[in-house]
Amino acid sequence: MYRVITFCMILWSLAGIAQSGNLLVVCEDCEYKTVAEAIRNADAYDTLRIEPGIYREYNLVIDKPLTLQGVNLPTIDGGDMGEIITIQSDNVTVSGIRVINVGTSYTKDFAAVRAVKSRNFAIRDMLMEKLFFGIYLEKSAHGVVSGNKILGDAEEEFNSGNGIQLWHCDSIAVTGNHVEKVRDGIYLEFSDNINISGNTSSNNVRYGLHFMFSNNDLYEGNLFENNGAGVAVMFSKRIVMKGNTFKKNWGTAAFGLLLKEINDSEIYDNRFLDNTIGIQIEGANRLTYRNNLFSNNGWALKVRGACYGNSFTANNFLNNAFDLSYNSNLNDNVFKGNYWSEYTGYDLDKNGIGDVPYRPVKLFSYIVNRTPETIVLLRSFFMGLIDFSEKVSPVFTPDNLVDTQPLMKRSL
Amino acid sequence: MIKIENLHKKFGKNKVLEGVDIHFDRGGIYAILGPNGSGKTTLIKSILGMVLPDKGSITVNGTTIPRQWTYRQQLSYLPQIANFPGNLRVSELISMIKDLRGQEANESHLVQLFELEKYLDKRLSTLSGGTKQKVNLVLAFMFDSPLLILDEPTSGLDPSSLISLKRIIRTEKEMGKTVLLSSHIMHFVEEIADEIVYLLEGKIYFKGSLDALKELTGEGNVEHAIAAIATTQTYV
Amino acid sequence: MYKILKYCFYDLIRSRWSYVYFLFYLLLGFMLLFLNNDLSKAVITLLNIIIVLVPLIGTIFGIMYFYNSKEFTELLLAQPIRRRSIFLGLYLGVAGSLSVSLVLGLGIPFVLYGLMKSGVIWDFGLLLLIGTALSFIFTALSFNIAVTQDNKIKGFGYSVLLWLFMAVIYDGLFLLSLIFFEEYPLDRYSLGATLLNPIDLSRILILLKLDIAALLGYTGAVFKGFFGTNAGFLIAMAVLSLWVVLPTGRMIFKAERKDF
């Protein structure tokens, strides 16, 4: 609830800004021929209207509350010299501008648009191309990043930057952005109360979305597709992941979602489609997984060590090569009332729940965990036989690792 | 025509031929006789190159045969069991063998003789044993080979076909061909053979004309004469 | 030889079993495509079937045909034809007709479905190539058994055992050895062990071409590093060819020294 209030407050304050102040027009034949000139001459709460054209400028520092408004997507070309727009004041809005040619550096994280210690800012409907970092928010709060399109051309991890980066931020809404071909699509470090929704993050070199040491965040209704490694949530608490789609993250070290050292979070209504690993879970405690769809993944769930008190209910597992991989004989997690497409039991009392428990860990999956090289026997006739016999009379797989109430039909 | 010297063959521990020396001259009908397991078929198959001898030599028309194959162009063979690829039709089998040998053949009068016209379009798997044997005979006699080897040619034949068979064999002889046959039917042998070779336990016990055999054993009846040799010494 | 091949092929093409085999693949192809609607999924399912069924059918059919055509063989042996030609002809006829059933049976539904335009044509081509190679390999192996074993029952038993060994037992031993030596680096070993068994080699070659290769993880990367190169692929093909040539050579050698 408080997030909504925050959001409204931001909107209200921004609306207030737009109403007051003077209008300064920037264009080739105008009084102000460069954006820098206009910023220098503007008073607080003025609005700069930037007409179509190409402005070869960089290091534009906005140090007073201003609104920069592009008309028909004017271009600011940084000429690979360094950072382009830096917001160093509260109450700044930047919108509708194409920003290109951000300088690349190995010592400084140059961004197309950076906000430093800013409150009540908004960055909207920007188009960023040929960039290093896209939008870099630093110790900022109560801001909005929405409707931006960030199109990078990253190929290697070491010389590329992130699309949208939040560092030590609080209460920021990141919505409806489209990020592709950067290192991490959206990266959060030490950032709390962030709302990430309706974004598309695809074809990035590393992660589509990456959390580090960030708590109480929500991401909802985003699409993460074909990223180098998927989405990673690490060293974080109380994250809500809801209604997202994790798709086509194929590769030897790729997964839809990586959970590492994360506690007390909720994962529901998500779809994991065609990933090498749907969710890889390491050191995750007290998480609930509900009503997610896992379809056509290599492994739907890969549970590595130290995972306690997780519960998996009403999820759908469809046509995964392996539904579950587990690397220990101990199990403190609950699987109950899920639908497993490989389940072959029956339901005599017609209550929709199979009468025979389902064992989601195949023997092969267990063996591969022990000796990874045995994966070369994937899809061999022998492993088929072994899996079948283990299914009939389990010997090796953990005893209590069963879904005692497997569903007969997909849960909706 | 055929010269066999010191032929030895054993299958495992079972010695089938133990030093067979024999020659068959051009133009004549030779019957190879002997009880079951005496080595008749092995001898025939050795000549054909199907069985490879352990020791000894076989020369056919001047060719020493192991691992040779061209000499078989001069030779026609009638196998004991007439079993052919079942999916082929009779006419196809005939043209196949003609094609494989690449030789001129005269099968039409044989087909007529054995009344096989109505079977030409039938698949071999649908034919009766006797009919198959007739097809077998057609295949053996349709080429103009100087040497004919017939393993149990009479088996499964009806009387009229048997008469035709005898007539054909005589005609072939008149054309100066050599015929080598094995049979258990003594009347047939008596009627047709010029010379008899009696084989027992891998050795030749007798080779000579029927009259010589009767004279030697003092039996008027061929069957008795044959039975008599088995109990006495070698008469070669 | 070509004449023998021609007639043997002719004979088999008209046999009921060739039709059953052909129709089976035809049906399978149509079913997979129209139930699945996904070409690359269909290729995976086909892989599973091909690496089990093609060797089995090749072995059983090969040994049955060899024994059943005993009289035909003897008829041919009495003809002026080289022994080598007879057996090579028979072998190529059987392996060829099995391959034709496979290639046409699977090819027709795939072509009708619009394979030519899709990207999986190479994967599918490889699948058919490998299916053909397996047909030739296992027919050659079964002919080897048949030529040295006159007892039909024993020969049949041996060939089923052979199939069982290559398709199942080998992988079991392979798995046990991997688990037993798990502390050691096993990538090269598993590469070698895969190369030695034509069924495993075929499976890996196809898996590496498919998306599913990502599941193979690090080991898969090592395999891809080897088979992905032209040289590696050529080595794999050379191994498959050796599996055809060596048993065929031995079969001919034995046949030339056999009494009929």
UniProtKB/TrEMBL annotation, chain A:
Pathway: Protein modification; protein ubiquitination
Keyword tags: Repeat, Signal, Ubl conjugation pathway
Organism of provenance: Zeaxanthinibacter enoshimensis
Transport is among the record's keywords: no
A Pfam family matched in the record: NosD
InterPro entries attached to this UniProt entry: Carb-bd_sugar_hydrolysis-dom (IPR006633), NosD_copper_fam (IPR026464), NosD_dom (IPR007742), Para_beta_helix_rpt-2 (IPR022441), PbH1 (IPR006626), Pectin_lyas_fold (IPR012334), Pectin_lyase_fold/virulence (IPR011050), SCF-Subunits/Alg-Epimerases (IPR051550)
Occurrences of domain Carbohydrate-binding/sugar hydrolysis (ranges): 50-189, 218-356
Top-level lineage group: Bacteria
NCBIfam families reported for this sequence: NosD_copper_fam, para_beta_helix
Protein name: Nitrous oxidase accessory protein
Claim: Aminoacyl-tRNA synthetase is one of the keywords in the record: no
Signal peptide positions on this chain: 1-18
Automatic annotation (TrEMBL), chain B:
Keyword Cytoplasm: no
Top-level taxon: Bacteria
Pfam families xref list: ABC_tran (PF00005)
Keyword ATP-binding carried by entry: yes
PROSITE patterns: ABC_TRANSPORTER_2
GO-annotated molecular function: ATP binding; ATP hydrolysis activity
Descriptive protein name: Cu-processing system ATP-binding protein
Automatic annotation (TrEMBL), chain C:
Keywords from the UniProt entry: Membrane, Transmembrane, Transmembrane helix
Top-level taxonomic group: Bacteria
Name of the protein: Cu-processing system permease protein
Keyword Disulfide bond belongs to the record: no
Segments traversing the membrane: 20-36, 42-67, 88-112, 124-148, 160-181, 233-253
Membrane among keywords: yes
Coiled-coil blocks: none
